[in-house]
């Protein structure tokens, strides 16, 4: 089988010549971004945490309850659902670094749980006990199970579709919408001069996640370009519906995250940002925006700029615009 997909153990053992330069570039950037949680002095934020309202502390605890297990869930998606089905050595290098980064993020959130006076047992229990949080996790697990507990034949159209579905579930939805929604809430405290070191930790996590998102989108577009039989209106409609369903799940989750709202932030505000993010992800996959809402958190642009993705793809060997049309089956003008 030619192209980026394949399961041959003895294939993909030579790095040069590099076929997918975008993957090699992302690997180099990821290595340059390497960091460690204990480089940030979180104990300086304890006084802020203690003087915050119960609702504000609930929000931080809720975020840690979600992020911590889901960073590990992403690693399972990568190790069992992506790495084994790709041939390119440069992609394997990047995925290995991404898996290390997910582990580092897990340890970062452990560092938060250890530093702040948070009830660890309650925080750990939330991802199975809070229905809106458990529903999101169940959604992810459903797709990852297709790759791990069921037989996947990557040579078939159905197998390739399942591979893309998994990528959309964990990369576009989990990392590209749900995580970014939480990042915005986490960084909102720094906007009020609270938890500034925690904000710096989140900046580093976001920097990693922006590369994960770029890799995942480029991988999806490459698979679709190399396998034109996947480019059907029916499959495109299914992918879009996955994203719309994810927005609805996130809306319910954010009601539990901020049931009464905190200063300058409530569930309505966050959910507008979620819809804004979803539109950006849809556009990056070649769809028209669904919600057409403005970005309520323009200050987040200092931490990440979702439009940067378009520039990234246009500057690589694989054309973003041409590949994006492959998802929706739109013809080039």
From TrEMBL:
Source organism, top-level taxon: Bacteria
Keywords: Deoxyribonucleotide synthesis, Iron, Membrane, Metal-binding, Oxidoreductase, Transmembrane, Transmembrane helix
InterPro entries on file: Ferritin-like_SF, RNR-like, RNR_small, RNR_small_fam
Catalytic activity: a 2'-deoxyribonucleoside 5'-diphosphate + [thioredoxin]-disulfide + H2O = a ribonucleoside 5'-diphosphate + [thioredoxin]-dithiol
CDD domains (UniProt xref): RNRR2
EC category: oxidoreductase
Subunit structure: Tetramer of two alpha and two beta subunits.
Protein's name according to its UniProt entry: Ribonucleoside-diphosphate reductase subunit beta
UniProt source species: Leifsonella bigeumensis
